[in-house]
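cache lookup: miss for this entity combination. No prior model stored, computing from scratch. Input as submitted by user K.M.:
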Amino acid sequence: MDRNGGFWSELGPLTRAVGRTMGMTLRNFLRRPVTIQYPDVQRAYPDRFRGVLALTYDKETGAENCIGCRLCEYICPPQVIKVEMLKAPGRNYAKTFTLELYACEFCELCVQVCPTDAIIMMKSLDLATADRRELLLDKDRLHTIGLQFEPSWATGTRLRDMQAPPKAPREAKAAAKGEESAEGKAE
Amino acid sequence: MSVPPVALQALGAFILLNAVILMVTYVTLLERKFAARMQSRIGPYYVGRPHGWLQPIADALKLMMKEDIVPTASDRWVYNLAPIVFLIPCVLIFATIPFAPGLGLADLNIGILFFLAVSALEIVGLFMGGWGSNNKYALLSAMRGVNQIISYDLPFLFAALVPVVLTGSLQMSAIVAAQQGLWFVAYPVLGQLAFVGYVIATIAAENRVPFDILEAESELVAGFRVEYSGMKFALIQLGEYAHVLGTSFLGALLFLGGWLGPGPAWLGPLWFLLKAVLIFLLVTWVRWSFVRIRVDQILGISWKLLLPATVLLLLVTGLVVAAGGGGGP
Amino acid sequence: MDVEARKIVEIGYGGNERLIMNMGPQHPSAHGVFRAILVLEGETVVAVDAVIGYLHRCHEKLAETLTYVQYPSIASKTDYVSAMTSELAYVSVVEKVGKIEVPKRAQYLRVLAAELQRVASHCLWLGTWCLDMGGALGGGATVFLYCMRERETILDLFESLTGARLLYGFHQPGGTRYDVPAGWADRCRETIAVIEGRVEEYEAMLDDNAFFLVRTQGVGVITPELAQEIGLSGPLIRGSGIAYDVRRAEPYSSYEDFDFKVPVETAADCYARYRVRMQEFRESIKIVRQVLDGLPPGPISSRPGVKSVGQVRVPKGEGYARVEGARGEVGCYLVADGGAKPYRLKWRGASFSNLSVLPHIIPGHKVADVVAIMGSVDPVFGEVDR
C-alpha cells in the first residue's frame, strides 16, 4: 500500500478485492444465524452421544445389572471408578460403586468392557453443579441417572460386536456345524 | 413572559445532550446486532427479548456500578480529567449540526470549520489518558493514536472541504440547501471520490479497524483506555461512539443531502438520522470485514496516498467551480 | 541469544536501548501457553527466547503406566486440535511393533477420520490466525466465527460417529472402535460440499485482501535450507518449496490408494503457508470423497472388541511410526518389552520441531509481525509440551 509509483495501476485490483471482501460479509449478513438458543432450545443429541454415566437395571427382572466384576475399574485410564464386590449366591453384586465424574474422561472404555451392559452413558451432559462433591457419583445416584435421562445407543455388547465381527450365535452353531467354521474364517 | 435567551439555549443544549447520549447508546446496540448478523449469530438477545432492546441500558448500569480503580502512581488530575476532556469535544460537535432547517442549536456560519477543529481536540483527551495512566503500554498507544489522528485529520479536512467548495459556504444549512437538486455524492466523479476519501479518513481518525493499531491485541489490549474502569471507561466509550456518530452525521450532511428527502418537511430529521446511520453502518461493515495493518503502513497510507489524493481532489474541485462561474462569496 | 541482550533492562525510547518484553504464557493472541521473551529495539525484535513446558502433562510417563488398550484415548490429548492423527500415530506404532494387521475397511475409516480432522484443524488455524491479526473486535473475529461455524459441522459428524466432539478414542490397536452409522455417508458428503463452498468464500475474502497481503507477504521467510536443518515438517516445509509429505514419502493406512496432490509453494513466507493450507483443504475433501466412494465392507478391527485391560500384548521390539498430522510429522517411538504396557514411548510432536524455527525467523521483524508468524507456524502446545 505504500508503493508510490505503482499505486494507480493497483487501484483497480485493490478496489475489487475490497469489494469482494465486503461482499462476503454482506452475504453472510443475509444468511440465517446458526445460533441455537440453549436452554430455551435443546440440540438433538446423536445416538452415540457420550454423556453422563449411569448404572442400569435389568429390563425384565428389575434386578441390578452390575455384577461387581471390576472390569470397568481396571480399564478406566484416569482410574475414576472404584467398585467393591458383594458375593451372593447365584450372582454377585456391587456393594459400593463410586465414579468420580469430575475426573472422568468420557472415553467409553468402561461401557465397552462391561460384560452385562450394566454401565452405560446417557444422551445428556446436564449435570452442572456448583459443588464438585455432587459429581462424586455413588451407586444410588448412578442408578437414578440411569432412569432420569435417555440412554445412548452404546452398550458393552453393541460396542464389542461393532468392533469385531460377532461369532455366529449358539443355535446356528449347533444347527449348522459344518459350514460355520468356514463362515467364521471368511470374516 | 420574557425568558432570557440564555435559558432557552441552555434548555436546548440539555435536550440535545440527552438525545445524543441516547442515540449513542442505542447505536452501540445497532452495531452489535449488525456485526452479529454478519457473523452468523444473533447478538444481544436476552436483555429485553427478543432483540436485546435493554442491553445498552444494562451495560450503562453495569459500568456505573463497577469499582473505580485508580492506579496509585498515576498522575491524579490528568488521569481523572482525561475522560471528560475526551468526551467534551466529541459531544460538542453535535451542537453545530442542524437537524432540520432552523432546528439546530448553533448553526454557525463557520459551522464546518468549527466542527473539524473541535473534533480534533479529542486528541488532547486521548493523550491525557495515556499519559496519566502511568502505564508504558498506554503511553505507547496514546502516542501512536495522536500520530494517527493527526495524520488522518488532514485528508479528512480536505475531503470535507470539497462540498464546501462546491457550495461556496461553510454554513451547514447552506450546504444542505445547495444539495436540493443533486446530492453531492452523486456529483460526477468528484463527489464519489470525495465521499470515499471522507469515509476512509473517518475510519482512520476514529481508530476503527483496519486502522486500530491503537488497541492492537498482543501488546495494547485496550490502548490508552487500559487503566480505566467503571464510569470513566463508560465516558470514554461514549466519547468514541459519539465521535463516530458525529462524523457520520456530518457525512450525511455534506454528501447525502442532510434532511432532504421525499415527504413532508417534518420527516426531514428522520431522513437525516437514517442517512447518518447508513454511513455508520458502512463504517461498521468495513470494521467487521478486515484485519488490521501495522502502524507504519497506516501512516504510509495517509501521508503517501490519501493526503495527496484529497489535496488534488480539492484543487480540481476548486478549478471546476471557478471555471463554472464560481460559487457564493 | 547473546548474553549481552539478557543483561540490559533499561527502558528507553530514542536510540539503541533495548527493551525486554514478555509475550507471556497468557496473552490475548492465544495459541496456547507459550512464553516468548522478545528483545526489542524500538519496534523491531532483535532476539527471541522461547520458553515452553507450561502444558507438560507427562504423556510419555503416562504411556508407561497405561496399557495399549487404554492409551489411545489419552493419545488424542497431545495434539488435541487434531486428535484423530495423534491417536493414529500411537496405534500405528503399536501395530508396527506388534505386527498387528489392520483390515482394509479400518484403514479407509482411519483415512476418512484423519482427513476430516485435517479440514477441521485447518478451520481452527485460519480462524485463530485471523483473530490474532485482525483483533477480537474486527474482521478477524468475523473470519474466526465463520471458520468455527464450519468446524462445528465437522465436529457434528464426528459426534455422530464416535459420540464425542473433540477427543475421540476412535482408534484401537488393530483397527477402529466405531463404524459408520446409517446415513452418515450422505451427511458427510453434504457437509464437505458446503465446506468446499465456504473455503472458496474465505479465499475470496482473504486472497487479494490488501490488508491481509501486507501483513503476510514477505513476513517470516523460512529458507529451504533452514527448514531442512531444523527439521520442520508439514505446511511449513511445503511452503518453502520442499515437497515432503509423510503420506507420500512413507504411505500408511492405504494412502497409496488415493489420488491427491501435495500442495507446495516456493515463496516461503506466511502467505505461502496460508496458500498451502488452503489447498490442503481441497485435497483433503477430495480424499474424503474417494474414501466414501470406495469404502470396502468388512470388519473394522482385526482383534476382538476391547474386553479386558491387558488384551493387547506386544512382543519385545522397538519401532517408529509417523503420520502426517495437520501440523506436520507426528511420530511415536515405542520400545516394547512383551507385556501389556510399553517400556518406553517417545512422542515426536510436529509443533515442537516447528517452534524451534522462531528464533531464526522472527528477529528483524516488527512486534506486530510476531503474531502473524506465530499463527502461520500454527503450534498446538499439547504437542509441544506433551
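stored under new cache key. The two ends of chain A are 65 Å apart (CA to CA).
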